Structure formats: structure tokens, C-alpha cells
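Hi R.,

As promised on Friday, here is the backbone we talked about, encoded as C-alpha cells. Could you run it through your design pipeline when you get a chance and send me back a sequence?
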């Protein structure tokens, strides 16, 4: 009888162990499977310069630009007050989007589910003007605003993130079509450098050219 009772209690004990382990693991993952603790650790590494030397001036300028973009969008992460006034639209007021610029040859900007936006310095060499910079930044902000936290890139997510700034940047005085010219140049440079072009570029270009 005691042995039978012991066996009966094993499932309950196992369940208790699982619940304790889940509590010890911390908060539940964000959409797309991202774990907040892992993202916090990644951001701390960036803050300490472990992802590359940080450019404080560029961070201030892009942070202010992010605020302007969010203010024009009226989005959930928009800065307090919005508008074009740099004194009002200061990066410190956009606490939900934190822009970091690191010295890295990679031509990339990337948004993370916790609101971190990481810009690699190599991106600036791929841009021709301020409108293209605004598009690149707004594309990543769109991923945050639209909740695109899936690990795998899909055409649908990229098309939505392209359409979002295309509808809003002209309100801030940036030329229309900046996204299309930037993506077309990236595709051409990939060919010139004998690299494989991003397989989504052609589809994104078609949508931008069509005004999508």
C-alpha cells in the first residue's frame, strides 16, 4: 500500500517540479519565441560596446529621427508630443524604441522585440541621401509597430514593413520612392560584388514600384 501511494504521488511531484522550473526560468517569451531575459542581455552587451564601438552622436540623431517618424505615424510607441521640434521630440521621450549605432562593416539595421533598434555603421555607406536613411530606419520601426517578431523573415512581413514608411515619410518632407531606389541599389551592388541578392528584394521592389 505505501509503495502504491508513492507511485501515485509521482505525477503530482513531477508536475510541481515542472511548475517550479517554469517560474525559475522567468517571464514568458514574447511573440515569436523571444525570451525577454535574452534580449535584455543582448542589449546590455550592445550598451557596453561588445557589439562594436558605439557612435553617441549618430545615436542621438537617429533617436530624434525615430521620434519624428513615430510622431508622424501616431503609433503606439510614439514620443510624447511628437512633431518636428527636436526639443520636444527627444530620444529620451521615446523610451519604447532605443536606437544604438555600432561601428561594424555590416550594412544592416535590425529591430528587436524588446524595442531595441540596432544600426550597424556599414549601412551608411549604402545610402545616398537622408530619405533613404529615413526609410531604412522607418522600415525597422514598422516591424516594432506592427508586431513582427517572428524569427523567420517572410515576404508578407517585409512588404508590410516597406509599405508602412512609404505612407508616412512624405509627411515629414522626405521624397517618395526612397525605399525603391535603396533596394534597387542594394540588389545591383550584390550582383556587382558577385554575391547572391536577397531573394525577397525583387518582390519588395515590385510592391514599392506599384505603390504598395
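Update: got your reply. Pasting your designed sequence below so it's all in one thread:
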Amino acid at each position: 500500500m505505501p509503495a502504491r501511494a508513492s507511485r501515485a504521488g509521482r505525477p503530482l511531484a513531477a508536475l510541481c517540479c515542472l511548475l517550479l522550473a517554469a517560474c525559475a526560468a522567468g517571464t514568458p517569451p514574447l511573440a515569436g519565441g523571444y525570451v525577454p531575459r535574452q534580449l535584455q542581455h543582448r542589449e546590455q552587451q550592445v550598451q557596453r560596446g561588445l557589439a562594436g564601438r558605439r557612435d553617441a552622436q549618430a545615436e542621438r540623431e537617429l533617436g530624434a529621427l525615430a521620434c519624428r517618424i513615430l510622431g508622424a505615424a501616431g503609433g503606439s510607441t510614439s514620443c510624447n508630443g511628437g512633431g518636428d521640434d527636436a526639443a520636444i521630440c527627444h530620444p529620451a521621450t521615446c523610451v519604447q524604441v532605443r536606437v544604438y549605432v555600432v561601428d561594424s562593416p555590416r550594412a544592416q539595421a535590425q529591430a528587436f522585440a524588446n524595442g531595441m533598434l540596432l544600426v550597424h555603421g556599414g549601412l551608411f555607406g549604402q545610402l545616398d541621401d537622408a530619405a533613404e536613411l529615413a526609410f531604412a530606419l522607418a522600415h525597422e520601426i514598422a516591424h516594432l509597430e506592427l508586431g513582427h517578431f517572428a524569427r523567420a523573415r517572410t515576404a508578407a512581413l517585409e512588404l508590410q514593413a516597406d509599405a508602412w514608411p512609404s505612407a508616412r515619410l512624405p509627411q515629414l518632407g522626405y521624397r517618395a520612392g526612397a525605399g525603391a531606389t535603396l533596394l534597387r541599389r542594394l540588389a545591383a551592388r550584390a550582383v556587382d560584388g558577385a554575391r547572391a541578392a536577397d531573394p525577397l528584394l525583387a518582390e519588395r521592389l515590385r510592391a514599392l514600384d506599384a505603390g504598395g
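One thing I noticed while checking it: Residues 31-209 form one domain.

Thanks again,
M.
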